[in-house]
Amino acid sequence: MHSGLTKSRTIFVLAGVLLLCACTPEKKYRALSFFFDGVPNPSVRGKLTENATEEEKASAASDAGEAARKAQRARGEAEKEVYQSQHSPYVKRECESCHDRTSKNLLVTSKRKLCFNCHDENKFTGPYVHGPVAVGACLMCHQPHRSTRPTLLLKSTPELCLQCHDKREVFANENHEGVTDCLECHQPHIAEDPMFMR
Ligand code: HEC
Ligand code: HEC
Ligand code: HEC
Ligand code: HEC
Ligand code: HEC
Questions:
Q1: Phi then psi for 197, rounded to 5 degrees?
Q2: 147 closest CA partner among 192, 86, 196
Q3: Which pLDDT tens digit goes with each residue over 130-185?
Q4: Ligand 2 atom closest to residue 86's alpha carbon, by position in its atom list
Q5: 146 in Cβ contact with 83 (< 8 Å)
Q6: Of 3, 102, 138, 172, which is most buried by a Cβ count within 10 Å?
């Protein structure tokens, strides 16, 4: 009885997502591309002449090593500032935990299932499951690698939410007068109540 109810709700929600996605082309989302490093390795050039002494060579080499280490540290700091969140398997360069290297740009499993290879699916089920979560559309809200926002978020609110929820409808609701941070009141994944209140 209970599971029957849950199932029909899921189907209902799935239909909702399909409807909403029809007016929100995946293309738009796909266009939000991944930021490549873009920071070239600063080249550290020695100033040694042909007839430099061994001591001069050793000292220059150690200067170069120190400069390279400094540049590396600076790059790390800069990345931390630009990217507020980075996905642990991405940082550890465990690319093959998600990508199948034998085939260009192919993932190890469908996008719908990929996240549950590591994140417990049970944490994404509950009395009420948000439409995109119920269908495994995690990438509508999260970046897989890293983000300039916290929690690997694709966008900030309200834009994140307004990808699917109609702006005029949302702001016609008096509960939403002047709000920008949708997460102040709503849960993104699951909730005890149908309005996903916190
Ligand atoms: C947690 C899983 C995960 C890990 C780890 C991961 N990726 Fe990805 N990556 C994805 C997903 C999912 C996409 C597809 C995004 C899409 O199509 O919307 C993707 C897309 C890409 C793309 C295509 C360009 C783009 O961003 O759409 C490249 C290139 C890429 N990944 C490289 C890497 C490299 C290199 C690593 C390791 C340093 C890595 N990925 C680690 C999940 C991952
Ligand atoms: C290979 C394992 C792996 C896969 C696959 C994976 N994750 Fe993660 N994810 C982790 C680990 C490890 C952490 C860090 C520990 C934690 O918070 O559980 C993490 C953390 C996160 C966080 C929190 C980041 C933060 O800064 O607080 C988000 C959001 C997230 N993952 C989303 C996703 C999404 C969306 C997918 C599917 C595209 C996915 N993960 C697939 C391993 C994975
Ligand atoms: C509607 C947007 C949205 C969707 C869809 C979504 N998330 Fe999230 N997720 C968020 C937001 C926002 C946060 C930040 C947590 C907060 O503010 O409460 C978050 C946080 C997380 C975290 C870290 C903290 C936590 O709550 O565990 C993980 C891991 C995560 N999401 C994984 C996923 C996975 C896996 C999916 C797909 C099944 C998914 N998310 C779908 C918006 C979303
Ligand atoms: C990928 C599309 C998508 C995104 C992004 C999204 N939602 Fe939803 N949301 C849905 C769908 C689908 C439903 C279910 C509609 C239904 O059951 O009729 C839903 C339902 C809701 C509900 C329950 C009320 C209702 O109309 O059923 C609330 C509240 C809600 N979302 C808030 C948010 C907030 C806040 C965000 C941003 C953090 C967000 N949503 C982002 C697709 C999305
Ligand atoms: C100050 C708290 C608060 C904030 C912030 C907030 N909401 Fe709501 N939201 C509510 C309340 C209260 C309801 C009505 C709940 C009910 O009727 O039981 C609601 C209902 C909704 C619904 C379902 C009814 C409708 O109007 O369609 C959606 C969708 C929704 N909110 C999305 C959003 C989005 C998107 C944002 C960010 C722009 C947001 N909410 C920010 C309190 C808030």
A1: -75, 150
A2: 86
A3: 999 999 999 999 999 999 999 999 999 999 999 999 999 999 999 999 999 999 99
A4: 26
A5: yes
A6: 138
